[in-house]
From TrEMBL:
Residue stretches of biased makeup (Basic and acidic residues): 574-583
UniProt lineage: Archaea, Methanobacteriati, Methanobacteriota, Stenosarchaea group, Halobacteria
Domain annotation ATP-dependent helicase C-terminal: ranges: 392-515
Region (Disordered) residue spans: 543-617
Domain of life: Archaea
Protein name per UniProt: Helicase C-terminal domain-containing protein
Species, as recorded: Halobellus rarus
One of the record's GO molecular function terms: DNA binding
Amino acid sequence: MDPDRIPSSFPAPSYRGAQEEALSDIRDAFAAGNDVVLVRAPTGSGKSLLARAIAGAAATTDDVSPAEATDAYYTTPQVSQLDDVAEDPLLDDLNVIRGKSNYTCILNGETDTPVDRAPCARQAGFDCSVRHRCPYFSDRAIASNRRIAAMTLAYFMQTAGSEVFRKRDVVVIDEAHGLAEWAEMYATVDLNPRTVPVWDDVGIPDVAADGDPLERTVRFAETLAGAVERAKDELLRKPELTPEEAARRDRLQELRSELQWFVEDYRNPESPTTWVVDQPDGEGGAITIKPLDPARYLHHTVWDRGNKFALLSATILNKEAFCRGVGLDPANVALVDVEHTFPVDNRPLYDVTRGKMTYDERDETLPKVARTLVRIMAHHPDEKGLVHCHSYAIQSELRRRLAQLGLGGRVRAHDRENRDAELDSWKATDDSDVFLSVKMEEALDLTGDLCRWQVVCKAPYLNTNDSRVARRLEEGQWSWYRRAALRTVIQACGRVVRAPDDYGATYLADSSLLDLFERTRSDMPGWFRDQVDRLSEPDLPEFDQVAAGGAPGSASGSGRSKSSATNRRRTSNRSRERSKTRSESSQSNESSIDRSVSDGDDDDRSSHPLSDVWGDG
């Protein structure tokens, strides 16, 4: 790597905000001999352009001997972010490769078949006459032979040890704040009837029945691996497989690797990984094998894949803690902070808390949040809004209550299957609709009038029923627990303000968020601390369903008043003027929030045990 090439590799014709200074600091950090540089860049600072500049400094074949690594990888956990890279003309030399299932076969009669189920995957020795034009193998060949290969973090990890995607000089990981958690997720082994094709062929023991549950789980994993190997070999002896058989074969091979990794890591006395096992239903029930801090897994799938690494995120909150979680020595890692250049007045935080949204207290708090949401909607009659619901249970209850209040026509939502389609539909509308979302705190760009306000319904603490979370809390890792929640809140706050001249308000509905801010102040980036320091109570209008966009006398919300429809068509200039007025009003602290409103009995609340799980979608 030649750090001096970083500034000249910047792909945009001009710099925005603090980009020029950031590139200089990143160059100096690598020039000082650091192999890993953490780049803490706030939302909207152009991290993808910074990433391209860093990748451009990778060694070329003219710089080093043939045996040495050259070129660069760009990777991100977020599929949507990879889509953005593919569509950005400034990043057109990042050659994107996706997994086989994302490509369709081009053979006659197979044009509805994904490449991972095509004849080349089903028939032994199949000689494809159009392989040179196959969309997957074409993209793979291009990406493997060009300077910068771009892929998801999942694909990057899965290709560890690949002869096609070998070690490169520079690896850039965007949105890297969750790297440890992503590694834990990838290394987790889920054993249940859906994931284990031979489930009915083996006896599932109660791993906690006697002795050490982990040791008993390892013995079962070895037995299961043998059954998986036999089933896989039986399929491999067939000259041709059906698409279903090909899928079964691939899953068996994948499961064999997962089990082998777990057993080998557990048996390795030098492995730092701690394993935990869940089997809530006992004998015959599903088993989940989870790693804690899988540093060894990351060494194999990430750190052995490059010479120099740049990890970019707005929310790497604590350098030492982050390094411990991903298996790096903080002494060999540099941290570069990028200045936030968006005016803090354009990204206000407002306190509309109505109590705690914990599972035990939600019955009392959620009706108040629903009514407060009506007042916020009335405050933004012609502006689109986003509600971070935290879980599908909260989303469902909010949607039900808003519909009862006549606002169903202004409210949109999604389920687990149609989240992307519903999100795109909401973004495309010119109406001032409100979108009730679940787990959309990251990788969502709502610039300009796409969204002018949002509500954070619940402090996004991790689920304490998760064995990994419980184990860490037993060990006293409360700072880690709070940082994980703070990181998600900061990510959420960045969805609606995407440029220096953009503006958008964030309303906080859960009083636990205020406690979180108090306990994590020392971990906050300075630019977010500035937002928290200016936290105020907004001057909201009185509760008025019609002003919020509801139809008079309607419980279904199927229509809207003429005045509301007219409001939605106001120009963005008038929206900006009103936003400025609100900002001035809030600064004068003339708040008039009615904290006594109630919405009656909450007799239809979901009691599903997973309703309080973080990201249960």
